[in-house]
Amino acid sequence: MTAKSLYSYIDSPLGRLIVRGDGQFVTGLFMPHHKGWRGPDDTWQLTDELFASIREQLTEYFAGERQVFTVPLKLAGTAFQRTVWRELMQIPFGATITYAQLAQRIGQPAASRAVGHANGRNPISILVPCHRVIGANGKLTGYAGGIDRKQWLLDWERRALSVQCGNSGHGRGILTSACGASSL
Question: Is there a contact between 100 and 110 (Cβ–Cβ < 8 Å)?
């Protein structure tokens, strides 16, 4: 028996997001024109009620009032992909790491490309923060929601931290985290 696919729309500063779930777990969060995703099909059921919690948490995130999400997630992918995605959730709000650092963190330091590939297949944008992974040279690399949205999310998190920490600076260090402390 196939699990039912439920969905709802959530308006955000990035455009209208589509959240997908099965009634118990969030299974997807997609941006407008999300690379590799076609959108809901005729078998999906539109419902707002079941997504009230994620809608509230995303509203708080975009208001600068939330850094960690607590809605239940179901990560559907290969064992390797799920390992990468779980590690993404350990990257602090406002921080960035490189693909090589992410590969090291999962115990596979030679797997930077595979990590990048898994990162690009993350079905739950923002909540599983694949936008926090950047190239070894500090440059932004691929993002299924679009590089402009990746840049927006990183800038937004840094601005939110600046306000929370009382700073006016906009540090762009690779391993910055909450209030200027180093991570990793």
Answer: no
Q: What is the pLDDT of residues 55-95, one digit of tens each?
A: 999 999 999 999 999 999 999 999 999 999 999 999 999 99
Q: Which fold has domain 79-180?
A: Arc Repressor Mutant, subunit A (1.10.10)
Span 123-151, mean pLDDT?
A: 88
Q: Indicate the domain borders of the chain.
A: 6-62, 79-180
The pLDDT assigned to 169 comes to 45
Tell me the C-alpha distance between 122 and 65, whole Å: 24
Q: List residues with catalytic annotation.
A: 130
What is the C-alpha separation between 92 and 184, in angstroms, rounded? Answer: 10
Residue 23: exposure state from Cβ atoms within 10 A (0-12, 13-18, ≥19)? exposed
6-62: CATH class: alpha beta
Residue 120 tokens, joined = 């690009």
Phi, psi of 46 (to 5 degrees): -75, 125
Residue 167 is predicted with a pLDDT of: 56
> How many percent of the chain have pLDDT more than 90?
64
